[in-house]
Amino acid sequence: MKTVNLTINGKAVTVPANYTILDAAKQLNINIPTLCYCAHLGSDEINKPASCRVCVVEVEKRRNLAPACATPVMEGMVVHTNSQRALKARRTVVELMLSDHPQECLTCPKNQYCELQKLAVEFGIREIEYKGEINKFPVDCSSNAIMRDLSKCVMCRRCEAVCSKVQTVGTLTGYGRGFKAKVGTASMIPLADTSCTFCGQCVNVCPVGAITGISYVKKVWAAINDPTKTVIVQTAPAVRVAVGQEFGFAPGVPVTGKMVAGLRALGFDKVFDTNFSADLTIMEEGNEIVERIKSGKNLPILTSCCPGWINFIEHNYPDLLHIPSSCKSPQQMFGAIAKSFYAEKIGVKPEDLIVVSVMPCQAKKYEAARPEFAPNGVRDVDYVVTTRELCRMFKEAGVNLANMDDEEYDSPLGASAGAADIFGVTGGVLEAACRSVYFMLNGKELEGEAINFHEVRGLAGIKEAQVAIAPGKTINVAVCSGLGNARKVLDMVRQDPNRFQAIEIMACPGGCINGGGQPFLHGDAGLLEKRMKGLYSEDERKVIRCSHNNPDIQALYKEYLGTPGSEKAHHLLHTKYHSK
């Protein structure tokens, strides 16, 4: 590898020739403040807009200050990151941003997580030096998932980078010129009228409050305190390895029992687990996989658990809408069973049973509001709150998970197999399905290490593998996460429909552990690895690790649904998708 030698603040360093000044400074533990640069976007090409100029440094023998995030290192380069000229320029840049920024930090959803706020504190800015006109734009709440307030946009272009280059959706772009320039949709149309998938990755990377999730927390509190309503809550697999981050637990540590106790303390009547309906999903989807493999029709089967990915195929690949599984996602399956089977069991009308979901995802808010999931005008899932929003609810109510004793989920919608836990990480849905498909085809259980399908694990964006579904019989599968990778895999399917028999797709890179509603990574991509390991540890600690062995799932079929794929199961647990 070619290297170069340079000096930063009087310290010599040798780094790869493809490094930037910012990269080289990190090797010396020299901090250079940044705003438009986003460490966990994962590619230098994505991080090269150099639009904010907060990271400017002085390079000897150059007339102009250089943006550290986009300036390549050169042999013999001498850099000063804290010269008077560089410090003054940075401060001026931040002060100019603040002069065109709403002064409503206390009520902003990004309060205490805002990177512009953090820079103002670090630079000791106590008053706005530059006075004048402030941009004002209407707030876009047209979708049920994501809110845009362009009055707060600082033109860092992170959202544009992740939308166009990582997710390849292309909804966001620079719009306008000069003082009115912002990142928005084409012709500034409402987000609901675009091809946005509501994956929420733009929310995760926005350094300020220009793009946030639409919150239903007030409505949840109102429902909890309404004596005429029975309010139950379900928690997604990925939430349990992320929510503890806000209460002092090491990243990735599962805090399942403490989270259950905390939710009871908030006042929910029953606390259930989306893992239960993840097992239910495997029963229906596994049956569907078996039927398609035997018939050889509508292959490859594509998983349908992720609403962001489903929205992506509806917009971009309508010619392939015959191959996704017809199964609803675990969130919506839970809602459908809660508003039918469970409501009947406890003698409550569906409209008086409020189902709240705690999800790692912004797209789940969009999914819950889809009209096909509101039979007779009654939504299967009433409100969705993200992991971040649940953390705020806990803090508002004075609930500290670190002080809670572990408690168990309620019955009968709370028991789950280990297979359900791994739904939250890329490859997990396919692995869970393979465990049960093997049993459905052979009538035999996988034993020992064979239950772990290591070939579909890991955070790689695209994984291709052959997996055994019967002695001597394998199928070709693909696992991908991130919509840019989904596009590549779907193009493979268009070119060769016989290349795969089963494909798992998740909209967010890494899967739900990196969902648009999870606690922020703060530039530490290593958190995803820790969350992934946390979910696999949950799977391994379970006595029952295959969905078809969940006794409560078996009882549900015996008592209510009949068999997987039955007429009643299709009515409640399956759906259709539409070209957009």
Description:
It is a single chain. With 580 residues, this protein is of the alpha/beta class. The chain folds into three domains: 3-82, Ubiquitin-like (UB roll) (Roll), CATH 3.10.20.740; 105-114 and 129-213, 2-Layer Sandwich (Alpha-Beta Plaits); 218-573, Rossmann fold, CATH 3.40.50.1780. 34% of the residues lie in helices and 14% in strands. The protein contains 18 helices and 17 strands. It has a five-stranded mixed beta sheet with strand order 2-1-5-3-4, with helices on both faces. Strand 1 (3-8) and strand 2 (11-16) form a beta hairpin. Helix 8 crosses helix 10 and helix 8 (274-295) crosses helix 14 (428-442). The chain starts with a strand and ends in a 7-residue tail after the last helix.
Question: What is the strand and helix layout of this fold?
Answer:
Elements: E1 3-8, E2 11-16, H1 21-27, E3 56-59, E4 66-67, E5 78-80, H2 84-99, H3 115-122, E6 146-148, H4 158-166, E7 173-175, E8 182-184, H5 201-205, E9 211-213, H6 217-224, E10 230-235, H7 256-266, E11 270-273, H8 274-295, E12 301-302, H9 307-316, H10 330-346, E13 353-359, H11 363-368, E14 383-386, H12 387-396, H13 418-421, H14 428-442, E15 462-470, E16 473-481, H15 483-495, E17 502-506, H16 526-541, H17 551-561, H18 567-573
Parallel strand pairs: 1-5, 10-11, 10-13, 12-17, 13-14, 16-17
Antiparallel strand pairs: 1-2, 3-4, 3-5, 6-9, 7-8, 15-16
